[in-house]
Amino acid sequence: MNSSVYQSILEAIMRPCVQTTKALPILDHATIPTTVGPLGDSPVQIACPNCHQIVLSKVDYSAGLLTYIFCGGLFFCCCLIPFCVDRLKDAKHTCPICKTVLGVYKRL
Predict the structure, then answer these.
(1) Model-level pTM?
(2) Within a domain: residue 54?
(3) How many other C-beta atoms can be found within 10 angstroms of the C-beta atom of residue 64?
């Protein structure tokens, strides 16, 4: 190769880089993600849409369809056991600060 090719490569390498920057959008409360993970039967970290605080949800369990199905499938003396097992109940997530219902996880 001749020296002009080397010279043009060297000039391209030594040329200062021009970087363009973009302004980041300003986030308001409408663009805050509401959940970090999907709602399940255990507490999750979530942004409350009412008080706009990032909180660990409070979970309350209540009898749902799966609880009643298990109740009907057991013998008479054991039919109340599903009402004592949280894993068979629906989970209602609430904000511990403002008590707003954030969502309900239904088993069925």
Answers:
(1) 0.63
(2) yes
(3) 17
